[in-house]
Amino acid sequence: MSASTPTPEALLRRMEMTVLRRLDGLLHGDYHTLFRGIGIDLADLREYQYQDDVRHIDWNVTARMQTPYVKEFHEERELTAWFLLDLSGSEDFGSQQVSKRMQAIYLTAVLASVLNRHGNRFGAVLYGAGKDSVLTTRNGRQQILRLLHGMHGCKPPDPATSGSRAGTRLHQLLETAAGVARRRSLVFLISDFISEPGWERPLAALTHRHDVIAIRLYDPLEMSLPDLGLLTIQDAETAEQILVDTHDAGFRSRFVAAVGEREERLRESFAEAGVDVLEISTEDDIVDALYRFSDLRKHASRLATGGSAQPWRAS
């Protein structure tokens, strides 16, 4: 990846020649592990087993038999996928060559291309330019290009010149998605989750109807500050500036503690919503991250089975 983002056409050509072949080789037969979908036709009932999704428990049969039973469904040959893309101002941050926005574009291009190669339809809801933009579900190479062009064109207003001081309202993206994703779908929510409060409940509601994968993007510099002396830090979404002394060990310690508290709140929110979470850094290789996630998703228990929420980091 270079510091400048290539055009959608150039990016797609490069991925078709290199990245997608590599991903296919890594996944082998695990495509349905990463992109699993659940059919709408009830196939059978069976006793609950460890790692089953408790959302599929048939409570009427369970009460009658005095032991948990789960519903089994016919797997759909084709699934519908939605990309919920947070393209707000904070996504422009990147301490090295790759920003969170660039990582989101590359990641979306890879996922959409793999979905398309298996004949699946996908759409998107883009948040970031003041009004959500909806790309209806289709398949085909042109649909990938429409999606990538939409991401390139979805630029939030500059708060320093526009006068806008609003932060990200992630709940708006989720509420829009709930209105457009009518049939049960695979949903990729790609965001850094730097947002005003209130997104947790809409995410939980979305998870009740869809198979949701939350992909959280972050930059290592957001987790800990090195000793760089006096720095002026600006909020990308409000243009608010603050002068900090990173040479102060006490300040760096308080920063790490605040990050730890935020990480714990995020884990709790994801656990309550019952979503699978993949965390990807701006320094991570996307193909390796997806392969690791596929392997972990195959073997790890669902959050809803009673385990604690442990987001899966790519590194």
UniProtKB/TrEMBL annotation:
Q: Which Pfam families match?
A: DUF58
Domain DUF58, by residue range, is 44-263
Q: Which InterPro entries match?
A: DUF58 (IPR002881), vWFA_dom_sf (IPR036465)
**Entry's Gene3D superfamilies?**
von Willebrand factor, type A domain
**Which PANTHER family does UniProt cross-reference here?**
BLL2464 PROTEIN
> What protein does this entry describe?
DUF58 domain-containing protein
